[in-house]
User: What shape does this take?
Amino acid sequence: MTKSDNVIVVKGLKKSYGQNEVLKGVNFTVKRGSMLALLGPNGAGKTTTVRILSTLLAYDSGSVQVEDYDAHQEADKVRRVIGLTGQSAAVDELLTGRENLVMMGQLYRLTKNSAAARAQELLEEFDLVDAADRPAKTYSGGMRRRLDLAVSLIASPPIIFLDEPTTGLDPRSRIAMWDIIKSLMAGGTTILLTTQYLEEADQLADQIVVIDGGKVIAEGTAKELKSKVGKDRLELLFKAEKHYTAACELLSKAIVDSNDKEHSLTLIINDTNKDVKDVLEKLSDKNIPVESIVVHKPTLDDVFLSLTGKQTQTAKVEEQ
Amino acid sequence: MAVELVFQKRPKPIQAMLDAFIMIKRSSRHILRNTDQLLGTFFQPIMFLVLFAAVFGGAISKALPEGVSYLNFLMAGIIVQTVAFGSTTTAIAVCNDLQKGIIDRFRSLPMNNLAVLSGHVISDVFRNGISTIVMLLTGLLIGFRSHASVTDWLIIAGILLLFTLAFSWLAAIMGVLAKSVEGVQWMSFVIVFPLTFASSAFVPTEDMNSVLRAFAENQPITQIVEAVRALILGNPIGDYGWLAAAWCIGILIVAVPLASWLFRRQSSR
Assistant: This one.
């Protein structure tokens, strides 16, 4: 049997805890060698979805196929082809980094020599050689996450689940983690990542599934999602008040926002290259000098806000 | 990738045993690296043995049969008590695994998940073995003498092995059910303390009131203590040997599947 191109197929997935319906019919597909980001706020159902996909949790209805195996009925076969990095770094704190890797490798059915060689390779790759023989409890948060990810890669599974791999990491560790994830993608691993950070999904994923309240509310590439929300905006700033007023009169039709104090005005533009040039030409024809111009592209934050009516984690942090 | 990965395919039962072996290694490393617990393994039994012998020895020796010193009488009881209390270690280890994310990791691997439990239980047997040897050596230093033959000692070892396994599997159940490590300690205290004290571990049961005596003489700890004691003192073992074995095997028959079932249920939430 040739393997199908769709590595993960989720159809009509439902899961309830008692009265609480956590997943209300989730559908998505992950193509071989691609990365899909499940994006959503806390409590959206991201972790539940990952726990079901990684065989930790049974589901109520729908179907969940990983490499054509049912994630619940054929859990054993699924476990051979997946690696899981959960939210809480799941490493054994009393064992050293190396011992963790070798032990997990052996539990993946690797031979002892194979596990040891692969452990050394991963320690080097993840910059953990110096700490390799120290107990994991002495590791920093970033090191622990790296070890955790290394552990899930010990048997080089073709599918990796990353459940909020950078939540709680400092910016430097986050970027280091992104680099590691990017190199995994370059190696052809199929990845499903969950995140609350739009920037992360934007940076890494081929395909984004926005999930909220147990339902998929939008799906597409970062570019497609952004274009759903809005067009680019052009912000013009003028030094002198008379130039500002003149520009306001000239461009009145297209203006969506203006600020008399700062002498700035904002236009909606459809075709960025052409429209910016047109506007600037119009202004220079009338001898109106422009102090500065800025083109705002819609961010995933805008996408998220318009889809869910809620702010994202990053937007909240920026506000504070 | 530079390293070539070699996977081994073995029959399921053999793989399950290897998984258990890997987990025993893990749990044993935990015991060796957890210095506080390691101190407990060595010093708690010494402390109990010396204190009980010194504090109760004078008063209780009058109630003992002619020619039996309290230290010789106490040895069986203190070993059984140490094992019973020591089983808490299994409960704590199981509880810790369940509270932390590591159990999800194990469950996402193509391994036999029950190896996590058997790893803790069996490493606990090793730890209890060390505690027992430490106590016997300490006892010898302060005047403990035994009439047991090598065969007797082998039977004693067998009974204690069964008893440790039985109690550690019971403790595994507690570890699964408890919500926190503090909960484990509380639960084991409430269960193990009455069981060991309302038994013949430290005092003969003859002077207890009738209700307590009926309980003490029919509960498992007493059977095990009496079996070990008879062998140590060179007395006839009577029914205690098979009663002790029956209790332990009975507990195992119930506790192993129950602990496994609870563990599977708890960890798949």
Remarks:
- The longest helix of chain B spans residues 150-177.
- Residues 146 and 232 of chain B are 5 Å apart (CA to CA).
- The two ends of chain B are 36 Å apart (CA to CA).
